[in-house]
## 1
Amino acid sequence: MAEVLVLEKVSRRFGGVQALQGVSLSVGSGEVLGLIGPNGAGKTTLVNVVTGVRSASAGRVLFEGRNITRLQPFQTARIGLARTFQIVQPFPDLTVLDNVAAAALFSQRGTRLSEAREFAAEQLEFVGLGQFAAKSAHTLTLAMRKRLELAKAVAMKPKLLFLDEVNAGLNASEVDHAMVLIRQIAKRGITIVLIEHLMKVVLTVCSRIVVLQNGALIADGTPQDIVNDRRVVEAYLGKKYAQLSAARG
Ligand SMILES: Nc1ncnc2c1ncn2[C@@H]1O[C@H](COP(=O)(O)OP(=O)(O)OP(=O)(O)O)[C@@H](O)[C@H]1O
Ligand SMILES: [Mg+2]
């Protein structure tokens, strides 16, 4: 499997907080990689650094073999990186359709507004928000705004997509629907890095999982490896998963 994304000893400090400490990681083309870890572990910071929202204090980020460490967000968007935001923040007074069209325009240079809107409408249908296209974004419920984030992300035509807690705050059936969408996005050949606290989701959709704790990568393996990793169980998963994996043998 070709590597699309490589992090080489990436660090990021915020004042006295070492949010990322020498993280080395590679993501293969077409992979659905789970990125898990306790609150404050550095997961969102990793996404911010890769996509250019924050700069790395040290280390390098390579995308398709190209050094992208110093690129700005609009530049990483144009070469095929997209992400959803943990705190959803649509343009509240724009229509749902135009929020998605704006994402398409951000990532695709030279696209006409009419084209962007047409493409946006397809993405809204895909996530099940078609009937809300003409509504102002501020009228959407949280679950709908999470889906809008997904529509915006796929409208950027990414090669690699970071999903940052797209299921947080959703009920069980909404989570099931989101899982279906995530799988369909993966089927299109888009590489996915899924940040998620719901282990049911991570274990179901990810082929490999990496674990961050205090900014450092403490584990990298198959879902089976991860639920059996003593350090991960102690740092994050807790006894529930130790027992679950013991029962599975
Ligand atoms: N802009 C910032 N300024 C100062 N500190 C920050 C900033 N962004 C993140 N941090 C700190 O960096 C650390 C990592 O934060 P980050 O948001 O990456 O964690 P996370 O793993 O995404 O957590 P969560 O699961 O709660 O979303 C935390 O200690 C956080 O307080
Ligand atoms: Mg986060």
## 2
Amino acid sequence: MTNIQPWHSKRVNDREVYHDHGNCTEGKTIAVYNRTPGTGGRLRCEECSRLSQSSK
Ligand SMILES: [Zn+2]
């Protein structure tokens, strides 16, 4: 589960962050049809940052 392409939610009510880790709780709750590929110029989700550091 490495080298995942980042994604972010297209729903306006979701936080303006992007996700790039397959185990992120928040990232996983975004339905596939609500996902937009790429970072969208957003900040990285802090859980994704933590997960990627701990899984090295
Ligand atoms: Zn995340």
